[in-house]
């Protein structure tokens, strides 16, 4: 009976969750390229420096160790971002703003609900994870994580590397980056994140002529293009022998990316 119930719940989860399409929210397209103001991400960087642990194949977060003071500082950082109108900034400044905000909100979600084994346990019974929950208000507009990723970042910047830098607090996800994004370092960090993920076993694992890819490449296939385009993308970053995408399977680990 328990096995049957588990299978039913898994089937419901698969039905309820499907990777969202990029769907532009036009309100957020505006920018001011003459504005030289920069957004401070110092508070976010301090949190990363203190609690993010880098391992060869994975970065892990010490959720259990985060002090009440640092939780308050995280809230203060998020409040500082949401109190401003990102449309007044340059596009490069906006990109860093949205990526850092997404990742900070994800960490706060975990901290607010800790302990838990997976972010997918959050949300209602008939939802798969918290991504559609409205978490913040900016300019009177309520936004969810899905709004930031799929209605702002993906459609406005149209860069597949975005999938390497928005973190879902899971072992299967591309790493939470140890550096906060800024207008000046975003391009380098995007390439570094792509390089690290493509050369990790959670991104690409070769066994003979078989290739196991992260499910990200399946869920967001429209962003990576045809099989030939995806193969070219992977080999742009791969070290060693080129990947041949002849026999592909997909996998993803939703276990929380935590460490003691």
TrEMBL record:
This protein's UniProt keywords: Signal
InterPro entries given in the database record: DUF547
Record domain DUF547: where: 87-198
Signal peptide (residue range): 1-18
PANTHER family the record matches: ELECTRON CARRIER/ PROTEIN DISULFIDE OXIDOREDUCTASE (PTHR46361), ELECTRON CARRIER_ PROTEIN DISULFIDE OXIDOREDUCTASE (PTHR46361:SF3)
Name of the protein this chain belongs to: DUF547 domain-containing protein
UniProt source species: Photobacterium lipolyticum
Lineage: Bacteria, Pseudomonadati, Pseudomonadota, Gammaproteobacteria, Vibrionales
């Amino acid at each position: 009976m328990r096995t049957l119930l588990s299978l039913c719940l898994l089937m419901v989860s698969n039905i309820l969750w499907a990777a969202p399409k990029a769907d532009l929210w036009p309100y957020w397209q505006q920018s001011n390229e003459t504005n030289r103001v920069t957004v401070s991400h110092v508070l976010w960087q301090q949190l990363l420096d203190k609690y993010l642990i880098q391992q060869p194949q994975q970065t892990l977060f010490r959720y259990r160790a985060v002090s009440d003071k640092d939780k308050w500082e995280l809230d203060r950082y998020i409040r500082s971002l949401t109190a401003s109108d990102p449309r007044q900034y340059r596009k490069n400044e906006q990109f860093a703003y949205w990526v850092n905000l997404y990742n900070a909100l994800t960490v706060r979600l975990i901290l607010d609900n800790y302990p838990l084994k997976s972010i997918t346990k959050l949300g209602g019974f008939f939802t798969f994870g918290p991504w559609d929950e409205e978490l913040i208000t900016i300019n009177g507009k309520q936004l969810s994580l899905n709004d930031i990723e799929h209605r702002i970042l993906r459609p406005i910047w149209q860069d597949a590397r975005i999938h390497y830098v928005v973190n879902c607090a899971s072992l299967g996800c591309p790493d939470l980056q140890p550096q906060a994004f800024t207008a000046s370092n975003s391009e380098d960090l995007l390439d570094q994140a792509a390089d690290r993920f493509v050369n990790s076993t959670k991104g690409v694992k070769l066994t003979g002529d078989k290739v196991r890819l992260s499910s990200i490449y399946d869920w967001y296939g429209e962003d990576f293009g045809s099989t030939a385009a995806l193969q070219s993308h992977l080999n742009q970053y791969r070290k060693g022998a080129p990947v041949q995408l002849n026999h592909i399977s997909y996998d993803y680990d939703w276990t929380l990316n935590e460490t003691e």
